[in-house]
Amino acid sequence: MDSVDVSIRGSGPVAFSLGLALARQGLRVALPQVPPLAAAGDLRAYALNAAARALLSSLRVWDALPADAVTPVYDMHVEGDGAGGALDFSSWQQGVEALAWIVDAAELERALHTAARFAPHLALDSGEVRATLTVLAEGKDSAAREALGVAFERHAYGQIAVAARLRADRPHGGVARQWFRSPDVLALLPLDRPQRESSYALVWSLPAERARALLDADDAAFEQALAEASGGAAGTLQLAGARAGWPLAIARAERLCGPGWVLVGDAAHVVHPLAGQGLNLGLGDVAALARVLAEREPWRSLGDEVLLRRYARERALPTRAMAQLTDGLLHLFAQPQPLVRELRNRGMTLLNHFAPLKRLLTSRALDA
């Protein structure tokens, strides 16, 4: 292929979702010809909100996912690091179908790759192509972004996220559980794989030294540490396979666009996973960029920087607000002082009884 309207550099769900969205507009799109990741080695699970689900449904990807690869979250229970501090969110109280949907990452990528193979106007190409617009969706370590000289302000948290799949001895009931403690954040996300109705995806953010020790520990020692951290709230938990870990940071590109190029997803911004909003922000980028391009003036080029700045302005507030929220929560719960801990717990208790604010927080998360 010699030339296209849009060349997308990236092989993840943000890149392929954008490719499908733009191809539906009749634009000629090129994506890298790479196979999806093997399900057996992928421990990731995404917590997708209503806006992300709507986008994937419009691309006819959501309904292609296997039934056991998608688990709705009906309730969420959040605990602090002391007695009395807790928050409960309910889809029934919020008047929504679900608070989120936990999706197996490998199955989502497989469905997106399959859809791309059959999409008109979309070509999977391993070579270099000329394009009116180049979209960088390569992730936080984007080489193309670096080549453009775009600064990527990154601050490491000194933490590692430990991921694993777990089996429980009792049903999860569609309840997600999270513990904010000094100095770690533990999340158990209900997932019907590998065992329907009684499995979890684990995301445990810990100081790097402690995380490495848990990654190197034998299964029995890891499960014992997990039992102590969760207090048995989800039942007896057992590892269902390997563990993996990756370092955590907050990061943001100094600018999102220039003449003929634009950044989306983790190439543009990275947040802490404690709120599960990383991919939601990336798919929000997809929806916004697709809409801006679709609504451009007939005489305006796809690579016009004035056009691309419309996208950048639209995404500035939600991405920065989510970064500040996750960063603020992490630092708040990292404070070990007894007085700070007591104030945190009292604040959580007050918020738990203030329904209007809880509804506001939930609506923000559903539409991030």
Automatic annotation (TrEMBL):
SUPFAM superfamilies according to UniProt: FAD/NAD(P)-binding domain (SSF51905)
Sequence ranges assigned to domain FAD-binding in this UniProt record: 127-324
Pathway field: Cofactor biosynthesis; ubiquinone biosynthesis
InterPro entries linked: FAD-bd (IPR002938), FAD/NAD-bd_sf (IPR036188), Ubi_Hdrlase_CS (IPR018168), UbiH/COQ6 (IPR010971), UbiH/COQ6_monooxygenase (IPR051205)
This protein's UniProt keywords: FAD, Flavoprotein, Monooxygenase, Oxidoreductase
Molecular function as annotated in GO: monooxygenase activity
Keyword Zinc-finger carried by entry: no
Cofactor: FAD
PANTHER family named among the record's database cross-references: UBIQUINONE BIOSYNTHESIS MONOOXYGENASE COQ6, MITOCHONDRIAL
NCBIfam families xrefs: Ubi-OHases
Sequence similarity: Belongs to the UbiH/COQ6 family.
Record's protein name: FAD-dependent monooxygenase
Naturally occurring in which organism (per UniProt): Pseudaquabacterium terrae
Upper classification of the organism: Bacteria, Pseudomonadati, Pseudomonadota, Betaproteobacteria, Burkholderiales
